[in-house]
Amino acid sequence: MIRTVVALVALALLGLCWSLAAASPLPSAHGNVAKGEGGPSPDSDVIERCSDGWSFDATTLDHNGSMLFFKDEFPGIPYPLDAAVECHRGECQDEGILFFQGDRKWFWDFATRTKKERSWPAVGNCTAALRWLERYYCFQGNQFLRFDPVTGEVPPRYPLDARDYFMSCPGRGHGRHRNGTGHRNSTHPV
C-alpha cells in the first residue's frame, strides 16, 4: 500500500510539474524568443515554486486526485502548518480544506472564501491528515485517530498504531485485516 501511495504521489507531482510548465513555461537557457523580440517574462510565483529552495507547508489531494500544495496559505490561516486535508461536500457541510497547526484547526470554505476556527479537543495535534475511503484521519507520530470532519468527534477505540493498519511492519498488524496472502487488505476501513 505504501508503494502505491508513493507511486500516486510521484505521478501527481509529475503531473503538477507538467501542468505548471504548460501553463507558464520558463525560458530556456538560450531564451525562447528571437533576438530583438520581446516576450512574456515568467511569472515570479512560477520561478519561486520551481526553484530548488522552495518548500511547502502542507499538501492534500482534491476530489479529482490532484495534488494541492500550500505555502503561506490562505488569508488568516497561520503558517507554518502541520497538516491539511480537503473536505468534500456531503462529508463536511460545505466544500473546503481543514488546516491543522498545533492544537488549532480551521476550515477554509471554498464558496465563501472564509475561515472558521474549529474547537476539537478530542483531535489534538495532527502532524499529518488524510482522507481515505470517505473517512478522515489525524496522525500523531506513529499513532492515528479517525475524526468526524464536522464535529471533531473521535470514536472511543482511538488512537491506534499506524504500523498495525497503514504500513507493513514485520510482526505487526492484525490478522483480521490481512488477506490470505499475508498482505494487508487495503480496502478495509479502519
UniProtKB/TrEMBL annotation:
Any single Pfam family the record assigns to this protein: Hemopexin
Alphabetically ordered keywords of this record: Signal
Keyword Transit peptide: no
PROSITE patterns: HEMOPEXIN_2
Cell inner membrane as UniProt keyword: no
SMART domains in the record: HX
Residues annotated as signal peptide: 1-23
Hemopexin repeat residue intervals: 78-122, 123-169
Protein name, entry field: Hemopexin
Organism: Nannospalax galili
Top-level taxonomy: Eukaryota, Metazoa, Chordata, Craniata, Vertebrata
The encoding gene: Hpx
